[in-house]
Amino acid sequence: MQVALRDYSKIEVGEYTETFTNLVNDGTAMTKDFTGDNDIVWHILDATYATDQGSGASVSIETGVVTSEPISAGIKNLSVNLYNKDNTDNKTVKVGLYVNGTLVGTSENNSNNEVYTYSISDVDLNGKVAIEIRNLSDTTSPVVIDNISWETMPEIIIPVESITLSETELSIEQYLTRQLTATYTPENITDLQVKWSSSNPSIASINQDGEITALSPGETLITLIANPGNKMASCSVTVTEVVDETYTETFNNIQKTGWVNETYTGDNGFLWSANGKAVTGYINSTTGLYNKNTNIATSEAIPGGIASFSISCKNKWTGGRASTIELLINGDLVGSSTTTTDNVNYTFEVNEINIPGDIVLNIRIGNETIAIDNITWTSFKGISLSTNKTEGINASNIYPNPSTGKFSFKNLKDTDAIKVYSAQGKLILDQKVSNSDTSINLEGHPAGLYLVIMQYNNQTIQSKKLIIK
């Protein structure tokens, strides 16, 4: 059975021997891991089981390798019993002993079928060590190894003397993240262990990589404790409230009148693609567009998210027939309006969209002609609990919340898809839903705040916040 190599095996200061007693003979050629004496895992590569030394199990290597997992407590000296098997022509057999990948000694012996011991003193390495034994001979005669013995180094602990943080004061806008880094002295600290914490994690949380997530306005103290030495450093964090911005696209930067199908730089420096007839005086005295059966206006990817949207409209030459205009965000339908009035100004609005991150706005016109002007939207930089647009689930029906990553949804209504966004607006989950009770798994994502959006027929039904702790 394979045994997974660990980061390292922790042992006390003392003398140790690997006898291979725990190695199971399961074939002529072995490549396997096994747990040996002192609960240390060893890796056997291309070797055979042997009993030639008369002392029980041992390992015969010709081209193979025997390696330990990293072992704590260092190494002062090292020895191994060797046996040149069937070396009838008495060629020199070379065996290399390595520690942490570095050759520390080479045994050279031309005996045949005799046990001999090769020892190395003054290896003198502190910290974690990995022992490795290789047959370095030109001869094809295998060498049998047994009783790998070593003495650890006296425990020398080098503690943390000081910590320097990249920042000692920070101001972060709500829902954004910042990275704190730490520099420790001296550089050769023994088994450095660190722990980050926040005095008020509801204001700002921090993971064990030092990444801060701003959750709500207020102040908190981020603390780092480093051991050995129990040294501490801190950073004062102020989380400021999100200020959403409002933008308007007037179409006034379209360079010509008449039918256009072009990309231009609009108000606020954003690129837009316009497909329609550019005219003045249809809705107001400035430039507008009209068309039907098309995507009349599409933006580039615009940062900052979207909370709400409005646009000035007028149905043209419809004779009272139903005229439909739709808003798509990132390709998903989030709202539509159908009216029968003709040649009357009206406003198409969509509220509580609440999609963070980069957004692409797309205005789509149905079968009847509609003139449009003044596309207006408010950014959405953060995550909040919105009012349900249709009857749906309460926050209590998402459980557990906070969670380590697994969330269950109960009594979902009018929902066929679930999307989850990070606080930075990155889509991290897009899952179809077929039952009123379902679950999602966000394990592996960093602790912090996330936005879950429930959709039906590509329209946003409601949005809620999730917290991964």
- Return Rg in Å: 35 Å
- Which class of the largest domain in CATH terms? Mainly Beta
**Span between N and C termini?**
36 Å
**CATH-derived architecture of the largest domain:** Sandwich
General description of the model:
This protein is mostly beta strands. The chain folds into four domains: 15-151, Jelly Rolls, CATH 2.60.120; 168-240, Sandwich (Immunoglobulin-like); 246-378, Galactose-binding domain-like (Jelly Rolls, Sandwich); 395-468, Sandwich (Immunoglobulin-like). 0% of the residues lie in helices and 51% in strands. The chain has strands spanning 15-18, 30-35, 41-50, 58-68, 77-84, 93-99, 102-109, 115-120, 131-135, 143-151, 162-165, 169-173, 177-179, 182-185, 193-198, 204-206, 211-214, 218-227, 231-240, 246-249, 258-265, 271-280, 287-291, 294-299, 308-315, 323-329, 332-339, 345-350, 361-365, 370-378, 398-399, 406-409, 417-422, 427-432, 438-441, 448-456, 459-468. Strands 20, 21, 22, 23, 24, 25, 26, 27, 28, 29 and 30 form an eleven-stranded antiparallel β-sheet that branches. Strands 1, 2, 3, 4, 5, 6, 7, 8, 9 and 10 form a ten-stranded antiparallel β-sheet that branches. It has a four-stranded mixed β-sheet with strand order 12-19-18-15, with no helix packed on it. A hairpin with a 2-residue loop joins β36 and β37 (459-468). The protein is elongated. Residues 1-5 and 384-393 have low confidence and may be disordered.
